[in-house]
Amino acid sequence: MTAVSLTAQAVADLVGGRLLGDGAVCIEAVRPLDRAGPNALSFAVSSRYANDLGSSQAGAVLIPEELVAGGSGPRARIVVRDPYAALVRVIRTLFPDEQPAGGIDPTARIGEGTVLGSDVSVGAYVVLGRGVRLGARTRLAHHVSLGDGVSVGDDAVLGPGVVCYAGSRLGSRVVLKAGAVIGGDGFGYLSDGKGHTRIPHIGGCIIEDDVEVGSNTCIDRGSIDDTFVGQGTKLDNLVQVGHNVRIGERCLVMAGVGIAGSTRIGNDAILAGHVGVTDHLVIGDRARIAAKSAIFGDVPAGASFSGHPARPHRQFLRAQAAMYRLAPIVDELEALVPEQARRA
After folding, report:
1. How far apart are CA 15 and CA 310, in angstroms?
2. Are residues 70 and 156 in the same domain?
3. Are residues 21 and 83 in the same domain?
4. Are 21 and 43 in contact (CB under 8 A)?
5. Are the C-beta atoms of residues 143 and 125 closer than 8 Å to each other?
6. What residues make up the domain containing 240?
7. Would you give the DSSP letter of residue 75?
8. Are 52 and 44 in contact (CB under 8 A)?
9. Does residue 110 sit in the same domain as residue 86?
């Protein structure tokens, strides 16, 4: 990515920080403390990094109030309440998004009745079905495929190879990363002992505003209801969302999570990596599910669950502690039994 340049003073002004040192330092990069050069910005979040800060060659560093006392290290220190949040803001300014040239690539195929908003960008070999609607400033990378009747809001970004099946609805500022598949048929069959007959899926797939979907994540359409992902929710790479699932607002669903059909997830829930959720469950608002957990029952609002099968986190920790105590107990018991008795 191509960076612009900022002075340390400009960085301080941008994040509302207090500048200590040379405000003329030129910042052109962002690096960790131990690998930063004289034109790089770095950050330290706590006193744990005091030694690294003192030896850093960074031109400027974002620090909390507790690290003000140290005088060595970078030529400029910028004191802020939250160094990490400030760094994110600087990165967005230092590395602005590269806007593709607007317009429609000559290799794109556009179906009858499709409506394109102003300043859209349609990349090479994109295929748009009949009646597709694209909002203003939406960007489609190469090889995107949108089925009949798909609608996409304003300022959406669809990465290379994204597929949205017919009737899928995407809100504004939605981001779909490379290879995401939206609105395909779910995994539903009738089995009679002789084989498996596919159940038709006639529901839709609705992705609300400000949702981000990671690479190679699949969100199935509903069978007779709609699959739904609420506003501001973020899904990581390689997530599977089954048919009729409803995910609330502002959730975080991390890599490798699998959510079976008709499960309901409330607002602000977090599902860590490789969580598995069985079908027709309810996970409440603000629930937290630890990595690798297997969810076989409902999770109350605000609860933290972990384990396989998952249970309240404190119960899981107590069970693990008890299991780890078993080995020395067995050793003690064996020491009480005479060797002749053990051989008998």
Report:
1. 42
2. no
3. yes
4. no
5. yes
6. 103-313
7. S
8. yes
9. no
Cβ atoms < 10 Å from Cβ of 102? 12
CATH of the domain at 77: 3.40.1390.10
Are 25 and 19 spatial neighbours (Cβ–Cβ below 8 Å)? no
d(CA 263, CA 24): 55
Name the phi and psi angles at 35, rounded to 5: -125, 15
Q: Specify whether 49 is located in the same domain as 130.
A: no
Give this prediction's pTM. Answer: 0.85
- Do 172 and 71 lie in one domain? The reply is no
Verify whether residue 243 is a known catalytic residue. yes
Site of tokens 């996970």? 283
Residues with Cβ within 8 Å of residue 97, at least 6 apart in sequence? none
Nearest to 171 by CA among 146, 151, 145: 151
Rg, C-alpha atoms of the chain = 27
252 within some domain: yes
CA pseudo-torsion sign 221, 227, 229, 230: positive
pLDDT for 109-151, tens place per residue?
Answer: 999 999 999 999 999 999 999 999 999 999 999 999 999 999 9
Strands 76-79 and 18-21 turn out to be antiparallel
Per-residue pLDDT at 107 exceeds 60: yes
Q: How far is CA 315 from CA 12, 27, 268, 302, 320, in A?
A: 47, 50, 23, 16, 9
Last residue of a domain, one of 38, 68, 94: 94
Q: Check whether residue 12 and residue 119 sit in a common domain.
A: no
- In this structure, of 35-49, 95-109, 122-136, 276-290, the range with the lowest mean pLDDT score is 95-109
264 Cβ partners below 8 Å, 6+ apart?
245, 246, 281, 282, 283
| 160: in domain | yes
Count how many domains the chain has.
Answer: 2
Catalytic residue from among 142, 243, 274, 308: 243
